[in-house]
């Protein structure tokens, strides 16, 4: 047996509705600018030639219903509600007509973003990692198996901040469909069970502060909630 110099990180997982087993999380692929209205509110245009992506690591996983401390290094922390697609079978260079066979299920996610750091990276033409790949920034609700949810169509997607609706759209507003996204990603990566895809956010994103509560929903899926906590104090070993 290989000796580890220190204990490896515990695997991250999320709940599945009405099941005892949990879905282990590997990679989290995020689709950028997949709702035209959101791209416009951020001063961007949609690239209709192909989707584009950024990634979050498992360290970003935060479960729905928890308290997320306000992160360090930012004064402009934003919410983005999204449909999450969970992969359930290997997929490499598949067509859009084969996608149904590789989807395990669907859920809700919040792509929490240090917007000021993302904007600074954009201005300098640098990667978005410090703005997007943040500890606790992939807030995930329980998954619903594909057969129980059915097809992704025109289901409503909505988010309230402290009881006030801020995001309200339909999944049919996505520029790139779930099938198109998975087929495209499968030409770039060997997709595998444990991979999640956050499919982009509608217009209405905005900042949160300590004490704020987010509540989101998609027709046919369980909801998602998050409370923003106070920033953590520094510590040393």
From TrEMBL:
Coiled coil: none annotated. GO terms for molecular function: acetylpyruvate hydrolase activity; metal ion binding. InterPro entries: Fumarylacetoacetase-like_C, Fumarylacetoacetase_C_sf. Gene3D superfamilies: Fumarylacetoacetase-like, C-terminal domain. The keyword Magnesium does not apply. It comes from the Bacteria. It holds the Pfam family FAA_hydrolase. Keywords: Hydrolase, Metal-binding. Residues 28-227 form the Fumarylacetoacetase-like C-terminal domain. The keyword Hydrolase applies. This is Fumarylacetoacetate (FAA) hydrolase.
